[in-house]
Design a protein that fits this description.
With about 400 residues, the protein is of the alpha+beta class. The chain has helices at about 1-15, 30-55, 60-65, 70-90, 105-125, 140-145, 175-180, 195-205, 285-295, 315-325; strands at about 160-165, 190, 210-215, 225, 230-240, 245-250, 260-265, 305-310, 355, 360-370, 380-385. It has two domains: about 1-130, no CATH class; about 140-390, Endonuclease/exonuclease/phosphatase (Deoxyribonuclease I, Chain A, 4-Layer Sandwich). α9 links the parallel β7 (about 260-265) and β8 (about 305-310). The chain starts with a helix and ends in a 14-residue tail after the last strand.
């Protein structure tokens, strides 16, 4: 602490070069402290740079693909490190390390350039989920038409309220989690990681949600779809693994229109393998999203919603490719990240729970809901599907 106070006094208040300051009593540590801080700065710069570089390398190795996730965090850390470097430069502190050798200065300047480039790369990707970008899904006029008089827990008249939630199969408060989701009165509720223990609590809402499609599985592989709208066609499909279901349903809306909904939960990269050693690559996740995107594209006469825990961020190459192939759009683009995982670590959250929609949809509102005892936060989307923008389609066979 004495060394840090001395460093602040010398560098900030007196604006003297660090190695020109009088030595600390009984410490002999002024040059050593400066050298330690430089090394710490360089280590953090190295972390940002390596993660950025790995995220740009194509491939399905889990080591590469997990680096797609923390773009916002790496950008923020990069800005902080750049700010520290700039502050040290402005205050006149020398980077020589106080006798540690003039090589420090060159290393720091080169590292600063690399850090700036890394921050620009991260900003390019993460910046798409800010107000600086034009929204992919246009806003609906329904919200303004309802004014401020309505209860925020009630959906806007004429809208479709959907909640997607990874409820966590280890969640000890299953009844409480479902009750909190039901307080928002969704028309459609898609939950993943539901097993047989959830069934009793789900059935309590059978009267309110008479239309259900269930695929209850152990170890976080299950899912269930609850709907107030009639489900004309509903089935469970296994696209990649025989224990990783997806739900495909055609829902009939009150005004006579239809929409198709897919709920998916592919495995994440880095997940430990159940058989043998090692960790899963992103191969199964990527293939599942590719298959879904191709099937959506093959049926352009329908309006689609794709929801669930993708175990992937919205700016990754995999999700971007799925959007490009399917034509689906992300309502978060241009509005915010609405990061959902992990619920307990706000600064480290990633947007891996998704609601993607066809281009006919309009967005009434988007919310990240409060904690339900899961490691994910639920995502709520209020959508409008204007009748004049729908193709003339009804229930049909695939």
């Amino acid at each position: 602490m004495l060394a840090l106070r001395h460093l602040f006094h010398v560098c900030i208040l007196t604006r003297q070069p660090y190695d020109a300051a009088p030595p600390l009593e009984a410490s002999g540590g002024q040059p050593a402290m400066q050298q330690f801080l430089i090394i710490l700065w360089l280590i953090l710069v190295g972390c940002v740079s390596v993660v950025t570089l790995l995220s740009l390398i194509p491939g399905r190795s889990w080591v590469l693909r997990v680096c797609d996730f923390p773009r916002a965090q790496m950008f923020t850390l990069g800005l902080v490190l750049l700010g520290v470097g700039l502050l040290v430069y402005i205050t006149g502190v020398e980077w020589s390390g106080g006798g540690a050798g003039d090589g420090w200065g060159s290393v720091v300047w080169v590292s600063g350039v690399i850090l700036l480039a890394s921050a620009v790369v991260q900003a390019y990707w993460a910046g798409k989920f800010t107000a600086l970008t034009k929204p992919e899904v246009p806003s609906s006029t329904l919200a303004s038409g309802n004014g401020d008089r309505r209860d925020p827990k009630l959906p806007v008249d004429g809208s479709i309220r959907l909640i997607t939630a990874n409820v966590d199969y280890t969640n000890a408060d299953r009844a409480g989690a479902i009750d909190r989701l039901m307080e928002m009165q969704p028309h459609i509720l898609a939950m993943v990681e539901t097993d047989e223990q959830w069934d009793e609590d789900i059935e309590r809402y059978r009267e309110r949600y008479p239309y259900m499609v269930k695929a209850l599985r152990k170890l976080g592989r299950g899912m269930v779809l609850l709907s107030r709208f009639p489900i004309e066609q509903g089935e469970v499909r296994y696209l990649v693994d025989d224990d990783r279901p997806s739900i495909w349903a055609e829902l009939c809306l009150p005004d006579g229109g239809c929409l198709r909904l897919v709920v998916t939960h592919p495995p994440p990269p880095g997940l430990p393998k159940r058989r043998g050693s090692g960790r899963h690559s992103s191969k199964k996740r990527d293939i599942e999203l590719d298959i879904i995107a191709s099937r959506v594209r093959s049926q352009p006469g329908h309006q689609w919603i794709l929801s669930g825990d993708f175990n992937d961020v919205g700016w990754s190459g995999t999700t971007m490719r799925a959007k490009r192939v399917s034509g689906l759009r992300d309502p978060r683009v241009g509005r915010g990240m609405f990061s959902t995982f992990p619920a307990s670590l706000p600064l480290l959250r990633y947007p891996i729970d998704h609601v993607l929609v066809s281009n006919a949809f309009r967005l009434v509102g988007l919310q990240r809901l409060e904690d339900i005892g899961s490691d994910h936060l639920p995502l709520l989307a209020d959508l409008e599907l204007p009748a004049k923008r729908r193709p003339n389609s009804g229930p049909s066979e695939d």
